[in-house]
Design a protein that fits this description.
Length: 404
């Protein structure tokens, strides 16, 4: 029985660690998903509150997993895990039935699940969680109190550092459709022979003041006692949806500028700001300095925003402005403002204000792209080595201290 308890403890711990970690990679994306949930339930929330809840949710999942894996405060962790499943299992069942939000976001953008798949996943995870909750008294002293406090504190500090870094310097791993290396033109293309949407035609007929729905196979074509009312097309199977299907840029005069931007053979720098009025003036000034450096080196520049023309006019007089959907901008880059360098429609690099390169580097954009990639690779290696060492240490800690 003790072996089964430890297996459930380790398995549940790893699932919670993974779920919290992938959310923590993109805490802004998790905040957007939380806002989607709140809107689906007709609840308005400030962006800062959604981000705070995102950080709290990521941390709670990750630390719960660490406590279970390391044996630190396992009774408390069992309560947390049970509370998570008690809240989210009924919630995902509701989402599966009514589908107000298409993707739950439980694994961030790393793994996309349908709402029914998410509900099934939660049912599966609930089994070891319930077992651990029942056996929580037997694992209450898996790790000594001093070691448990030190271990938990260390991981909270590490994870908060990890989250803040991803907010300030963009996500460590980009799971989105616009990640560097993406050919936007190709990602918007529907391959020849790809499955299309399939619809079923339904007919509404009226008889004796009562409406009835018929399919194309059984509608009363020759029965004059029925009166035709309406016809409906019902989607029964979704066809192929390209990874990028909502990218559109509009010039200030209303013309479509998408093709012009994506077909330009040279480099183009985009400063993306969902709402100009919500961006820091200091950060916008830094962006304009980068724009000046780019244009001096024959790099085209545009500000892309979802603001109204009235709010954008303060910058449109000096810098070219294109308009884009706010959700699309938030999907492209998790910063306001954020910066995207593209070459012939291919995303080459992305920066937040804090990671924006110095002006002189824009004189050699190829070198700029290479250095950006090297920095991201070094950051990725350091983070994963450190994360791996810490998680392995957490797993081995109860055995080193002979508490299991």
């Amino acid at each position: 029985m003790k072996l089964l308890t430890n297996i459930c403890r380790i398995l549940t711990g790893l699932v919670f660690i993974f779920s919290g970690f992938v959310k923590g990679i993109d805490p802004m994306g998790t905040a957007y998903k939380i806002s989607d949930y709140l809107l689906a339930f007709h609840i308005s929330s400030p962006d800062n509150l959604s981000l705070a809840f995102s950080i709290l949710l990521c941390t709670a999942e990750f630390v719960t997993g660490i406590m279970l894996l390391s044996g630190a405060f396992t009774e408390v962790a069992s309560w947390f895990a049970a509370l998570f499943m008690l809240i989210f299992t009924p919630l995902t069942f509701y989402l599966a039935i009514y589908n107000p939000v298409s993707d739950c976001g439980c694994f961030g953008d790393a793994i996309h699940l349908t709402n029914w798949q998410t509900f099934g996943k939660n049912i599966f995870i609930s089994l070891p969680v319930i077992f651990l909750f029942i056996k929580r008294k037997e694992t209450a002293r898996t790790l000594k109190r001093q070691a448990a406090i030190a271990t938990t504190s260390l991981f909270v500090l590490f994870f908060w550092t990890f989250i803040v870094t991803n907010i300030l310097y963009l996500p460590l791993i980009d799971f989105r459709a616009y990640k560097p290396g993406t050919d936007i033109n190709q990602a918007m293309t529907i391959p020849q022979g790809a499955p299309t949407d399939k619809y079923d035609i339904r007919f509404i007929y009226e008889k004796n003041g009562e409406n009835k729905l018929f399919s194309i196979k059984d509608y009363p074509a020759n029965d004059t006692s029925w009166k035709f009312v309406d016809q409906q097309s019902v989607l029964i199977k979704k066809g192929f949806v390209p990874p990028i299907h909502d990218f559109s840029l509009t010039a200030i005069d209303g013309g479509d500028a998408t093709k012009d931007v994506l077909s330009f053979p040279g480099y183009t720098l985009l400063m993306a700001t969902g709402k100009v009025e919500k961006a820091s003036v200091m950060n916008l000034v830094k962006g304009f300095k980068a724009a000046e450096a780019a244009t001096r080196n024959n790099i085209r520049y545009y500000t892309i925003t979802s603001s109204s023309k009235e709010n954008a006019k303060t910058i449109s007089a000096k810098y070219p402005v294109l308009f884009c959907d706010e959700t699309t901008i938030k999907t492209i880059i998790r910063a306001n403002p954020g910066f995207v360098l593209i070459h012939n429609g291919v995303v080459k690099a992305m920066w937040s204000v804090l990671s924006l390169p110095s002006a002189e580097l824009f004189s050699d954009p190829d070198r700029l792209v290479a250095e950006n990639q090297n920095k991201r690779t070094r950051r990725l290696i350091i983070t994963f080595v450190l994360t791996g060492v810490l998680i392995i240490s957490a797993f081995c800690l109860p055995y080193w201290t002979k508490e299991v």
